[in-house]
Write a structure and sequence with these properties.
Blueprint lengths: L5 H6 L4 H14 L5 E2 L4 H7 L6 E4 L2 E5 L1 H15 L2 H4 L4 H17 L8 H13 L3 E8 L3 E3 L4 E4 L2 E5 L17 H13 L4 E9 L1 H26 L21 E8 L4 E9 L6 E3 L1 H10 L2 H9 L5 H18 L3 H13 L9 H6 L3
Parallel strand pairs: 5-11
Antiparallel strand pairs: 1-3, 2-3, 4-8, 4-9, 6-7, 7-8, 9-10
Helix pairs in contact: 2-4, 4-6, 6-7, 9-12, 12-13
C-alpha cells in the first residue's frame, strides 16, 4: 500500500465535509483566549493536571481550556478518520502532530501566517514523515522446526535464529558500541537457537507494531487451527490437550523491532507463559498444509488489503479456534470454539445459536 500525497487527501471529495469542519474548528482552537496559562501553583491546580492537553510555548505551558479540549479532540478524530491516514499511523501520532501545528500557528509572525489548507498539508506531511518500513521479531514458544530452516504463512516467516541472523541488527556506525554491549547480549539470552517469527509492516512505529502483531496472530492461529484439526482425535489426550500453547502474542516475552532503512534497533521485554509441549513442524508438515489445507489460499487472504465477507468469516473462525486452542481454561475454550462455529454463519442470519442447535 502506497502513501498518498497530502494534497490529494485534501482535494479528495470524500474528505471535503470533514475538512470544512476541521477548518472551522481550527480557527477557534488557535485563538489565544482559548488557553489557560498558569502563573502560580494555584493556577496549576485550577487549570488542570499534567494530563490536561497543553503545548509548551517559550517555556510556558499553555493548557487548552474545557471548550478548546473538545474542539481539539473533535479535530483529531476527524483527521484520524481519513482512511489514508489511519491505515498508516496511530491516533497518538496524529494527536502529537496536530498539537505541534497549533503551536507553530500561534508562534508564527503575523506576516508569515499561512492558510488552513497549507497548515493542514504541513501537518499531514509531518505525520507521514514518521511512516517507515519496520521488521518485528518475536520468539515463538511451543513449536519445533525439524528438517526445515524456515516457512512462511501470510506475511510472517518462522525460522530458527542462528549466528548468521545477528548481523541484521548491527547499525553502522555503531554508536557507543551499542551492538556489542546491548544487542548481542539481548540476542544471546532471548533469541539464540530459538524459533522466531519475523514480520514486516509499513507505518508509524506504534501503528506498525500493532499491524505486525495482527499479522503474526493470524499466522499463529493457523498453526493452532491445524493442530486442532489434524489432532482432533487426541485433543483430550493428556499430552495433546486443548491447552496446548503455541504462542500468546500479548504475552510475547521479548521482542525486537528494526527500522529497515538504517538498521536502528529497539529491544523490549514483556511478560510471558511457557508451553508444556512443542508442536513439531517439518518440510512434510508444510507441504501437507499447502496441498491439503489451503495454506497458499489462506496466505493470500491474509496478505490482501481488502477482504470479502466470506474471507473475513474464514479468518475470524480460524482466529477463535486458535484462541480456543491456546486457552488454559476448558470452559472458556469451549465458548471460543462455539464462537468460531457461529462466525461462519452470515451476519444477516437471524438467531444464530438456535440455528446451530438445529444443526443448520
Amino acid at each position: 500500500m502506497n502513501i498518498i500525497k497530502s494534497s490529494e487527501i485534501i482535494s479528495d471529495g470524500n474528505n471535503s465535509k470533514s475538512i470544512r469542519i476541521m477548518c472551522n474548528l481550527w480557527s477557534q482552537i488557535v485563538l489565544k483566549r482559548n488557553f489557560d496559562i498558569p502563573r502560580s501553583f494555584e493556577d496549576y491546580k485550577k487549570f488542570g493536571s499534567f494530563t490536561t492537553p497543553h503545548i509548551d510555548i517559550n517555556g510556558e505551558e499553555w493548557f487548552f481550556n474545557n471548550k478548546s479540549q473538545l474542539k481539539l479532540r473533535h479535530f483529531v478524530d476527524l483527521l484520524y478518520s481519513i482512511p489514508e491516514i489511519c491505515c498508516f499511523v496511530s491516533y497518538n501520532c496524529v494527536w502529537k502532530n496536530v498539537k505541534e501545528g497549533i503551536k507553530d500557528t500561534i508562534t508564527s509572525n503575523e506576516e508569515k501566517q499561512i492558510s488552513f489548507q497549507q497548515r493542514l498539508e504541513l501537518i499531514i506531511n509531518k505525520i507521514f514523515s514518521e511512516v517507515q518500513s519496520y521488521e518485528f521479531y518475536w520468539v515463538v514458544e511451543g513449536i519445533n522446526l525439524m528438517d526445515i530452516s524456515e516457512f512462511t504463512i501470510g506475511d510472517s516467516t518462522f525460522f530458527l535464529f542462528k549466528d548468521e541472523h545477528y548481523n541484521s541488527f548491527k547499525n553502522e556506525p555503531d554508536v557507543n558500541n551499542f551492538y556489542c554491549k546491548a544487542v548481542v547480549p539481548f540476542l544471546d539470552k532471548n533469541f539464540a537457537n530459538k524459533v522466531v517469527v519475523r514480520c514486516r509492516a509499513l507505518g508509524e512505529k506504534d501503528h506498525a507494531e500493532v499491524l505486525a502483531r495482527e499479522k503474526v496472530e493470524e499466522s499463529i492461529n493457523f498453526i493452532r487451527f491445524m493442530f486442532c484439526y489434524i489432532n482432533a482425535k487426541n485433543i483430550f489426550n493428556s499430552k495433546w490437550r486443548v491447552y496446548y500453547d503455541v504462542m500468546k502474542i500479548q504475552e510475547s516475552g521479548c521482542f525486537i523491532n528494526r527500522k529497515i532503512d538504517d538498521n536502528n534497533t529497539t529491544l523490549a521485554y514483556s511478560s510471558t507463559r511457557s508451553s508444556h509441549y512443542n508442536f513439531p513442524i517439518s518440510k512434510e508438515t508444510v507441504s501437507i498444509w499447502e496441498t491439503c489445507y489451503f495454506l497458499d489460499d489462506l496466505s493470500a487472504i491474509m496478505q490482501a488489503n481488502n477482504r470479502t465477507e466470506y474471507e473475513d468469516a474464514i479468518l475470524t473462525a480460524i482466529h477463535w479456534i486458535g484462541e480456543a486452542q491456546h486457552e488454559w481454561v476448558a470452559d472458556v475454550a469451549f465458548w471460543k470454539y462455539w464462537t468460531a462455529i457461529e462466525s461462519l454463519i452470515p451476519p444477516n442470519k437471524n438467531k444464530v445459536t438456535e440455528a446451530l442447535e438445529k444443526k443448520i
